[in-house]
Amino acid sequence: MSDVTRLLHRLREGERSALDELMPLVSGELGGTARAFIPRHPPGHTLQPTALVHEAFLKLFGDAKPDIADRAHFLALMARVMRQVLVDHARASAAGKRGGDKARVPWDTQIEIHGDSGPEQLELLDLHRALEALERENADLSEAVEMHYFGGMT
């Protein structure tokens, strides 16, 4: 059993201090994952990889006591939560561009996808909608794509 899994078991048993030990163990790996799928962005945009990891961590462990089985389950959940955080930021940015919030700094929601035909640009919200549609057709395949793209898993 890995140290991460042991800490997750302690958390599940209600020992919140295990959270303080967990973050340093996983922050490097999660930061690498966040850096890998945060789009290339102009200087000064509002979401950095470290902020994404922290925001996702707070969202996952905020008020609830999540029932996380092991390290792989934790990484899968964090990938999903980081996706949700990115989608929330993209939605807020889109609302701001429509005049919903004039004080917000625009955030570039473009993600560069490298395919056989070279780099293509996809809107994060389009990717999110495509994953939701795939989930309605095939939930397992949607989860596999999400874990590969947002979680860096193979």
What's this, in brief?
With 154 residues, this protein is mainly α.
Descriptive keywords:
single chain, two-stranded antiparallel sheet, 154 residues, 62% helix, mainly alpha
Describe the fold and architecture.
The protein is mainly α and 154 residues long. It is 62% helix and 8% strand. It contains six helices and two strands, in the order H-H-H-H-E-E-H-H. The chain has helices at 3-12, 17-37, 49-61, 71-97, 124-137, 139-149, and strands at residues 110-115, 118-123. The longest helix is centred in the middle third of the chain and has 27 residues, at 71-97.
Report the β-strand fraction as a percent range: 5-15%
Count of helix runs: 6
Q: How many extended strands?
A: 2
- Calculate the mean pLDDT score and round it: 78
End-to-end distance: 21 Å
The class by helix and strand makeup works out as: mainly alpha
State the order of secondary-structure elements, H for helix, E for strand.
Answer: HHHHEEHH
Biggest sheet details: 2 strands, antiparallel
Q: What spatial form do the alpha-carbon principal axes imply? A: globular
- Percent range for helical residues? 55-70%
Side-by-side strand order of the widest sheet: 1-2
Cα-atom Rg, whole angstroms?
17 Å
Low-confidence stretches: 117-121
Give me the oligomer status.
Answer: single chain
Secondary-structure blueprint:
Layout: H1 3-12, H2 17-37, H3 49-61, H4 71-97, E1 110-115, E2 118-123, H5 124-137, H6 139-149
Antiparallel strand pairs: 1-2
